[in-house]
Amino acid sequence: MSADFISEKLRNVLEPNGFEIHPFKIGWYNEKVKPVFHLSYPQDTLSFCVLSTPSMFDKAFLPFVERLKTQSEIENRDPIDSCVAEQLQKAKEALQPDHEVNIIQDFEVHPVTRRPKLLVQTAGHVSGAAFYYKRDSITNDPWDEKKKVYGVSIHPKYGGWFAFRGAIIIKDTFCSDLQQTAPPKTLSTDQEIVDLLEKFNFHWKENTFRDVVPVQEKYSAEQICYWNTAPSKRFALLGIKDKLKSMSSFQDPHENIF
Ligand code: B12
Questions:
Q1: pLDDT digits (tens, 9 = 90+) for 38-93
Q2: pLDDT digits (tens, 9 = 90+) for 82-137
C-alpha cells in the first residue's frame, strides 16, 4: 500500500469524527529531539501526527459518552482518552491485516523515567500540522535565563483551539520519497511570539493564547466549560447535554449547536 492509500484509509475513519492526520517520517522527528526521546524505528518509517479539531467534541466525544451506560464506566479512565483510543483503534483496524501499526497517545510515558513517549509538538511541527513556537524561536527574549518557558504550537486554522492526540506509526511501511511540508508560520515578529509564550505560560487558564491568530473555528462555550471543570467533577456534566449547558458560565453565541 502506498503512503497516499494509507493516508486515505486513515482519513476516512478519523476526519468525519473531527480529527486531522499529517504524515511524517520518523527520521524527521528523531533529527530534532535529543536521543533519549528518539523513536526506535527506521528513519523512513511512515507515521502520522493526529490532532483533534474543535468539532471532535460534538462529532466523537459526546456520542461516545452517551454510549457509556454507567458512571463507573466513565470514572474508570478519563473518557477523552478512551474516546480517542477507540477512534485510533478503528483507524488501526482499517489498515489490518495488511499492516503492522503502533499507536502512541499524547499522555503515554515510559515506565520508571515517566518521560513522555512522544513529543507531540515536535511531531506536529515536522509533519507540517502546526508551527511549534519556542523560546529559541526569538532572537532576544525578555525572560530570566533560569525561568522555564514552555513552547506552544499554533495551528493555521484553529490557532490554539485544538489538541494533539498522538501518532500512528506504520511499522512496515518505508517512504523515502515522502516530501516534507513546513508548518505555516502565522506569527512573524519576535514581539508576537513573546506575547504568545507569555499567554501560554503565565495566563493559560484565560485561553487567550489560543486566539493569537484569526481562527476558522473554536471550542463552544459548553466545550470550554467541560475542559475547565476538574476531571473528578466532569462526569457530572456528561451524558446530559442540558446540564452541561446550564453549568456553562459562558454566553453561547451558537445556541443552535445543542
Ligand atoms: C509534561 C507536559 C506539561 C507539564 C510541563 C510542560 C512542558 N512543556 O514541559 C505541565 C504540567 C506544566 C503542562 C502544562 C500545560 N500543558 Co502540557 N504537556 C506536557 C506533555 C505531556 C509533555 C511535554 C514535555 O515533557 N516535553 C519535554 C520537553 C523536553 O520537550 P520540548 O520542550 O518540546 O523540547 C524538545 C523540542 O524542543 C525538540 N527540538 C529541539 N530543537 C528543535 C527544533 C525544532 C524546529 C522542533 C520542531 C523541535 C525541536 O527537542 C526537545 C527534546 O529534546 C505534552 C504532551 C506531549 N506528549 O508532548 C503536553 C502539552 C505540551 N501540554 C499542553 C497544554 C495545552 C498544557 C496546558 C495549557 C494545560 C492543559 N489545559 O492541558 C498547560 C500550559 C502550560 C503552563 N503554563 O503550565 C499541550 C500544548 C498544545 C499546543 N498547542 O502546543 C500539549 C502538547 C498536550 C496536547 N495533547 O496537546 N504540560
A1: 999 999 999 999 999 999 999 999 999 888 766 555 556 788 999 999 999 999 99
A2: 999 999 999 999 999 999 999 999 999 999 999 999 999 999 999 999 999 999 99
182 confidence band (pLDDT: 50, 70, 90): very high
Ligand 1 within 6 A of CB of 163? yes
Domains of the chain, by residue range, sit at: 3-131+151-177
- The response to whether residue 203 sits with its C-beta less than 6 Å from ligand 1 reads no
**Nearest CA-CA partner of 253 in 218, 212, 220:** 220
CA of 24 to the centre of ligand 1 (A): 19
Nearest CA to ligand 1 atom 29: 119
Integer Cα distance of 240 and 62 in angstroms? 9
Crossing angle of helices 79-94 and 3-14, in 10° steps, is: 140
- Domain covering 3-131+151-177 assigned CATH 3.40.50 in the classification: no
Please work out whether the CB of residue 258 comes within 6 Å of at least one atom of ligand 1: no
Picking from 150, 141, 257, 117, the residue whose alpha carbon sits closest to that of residue 194 is 141
Cell numbers 506569527 correspond to what residue?
Answer: 187
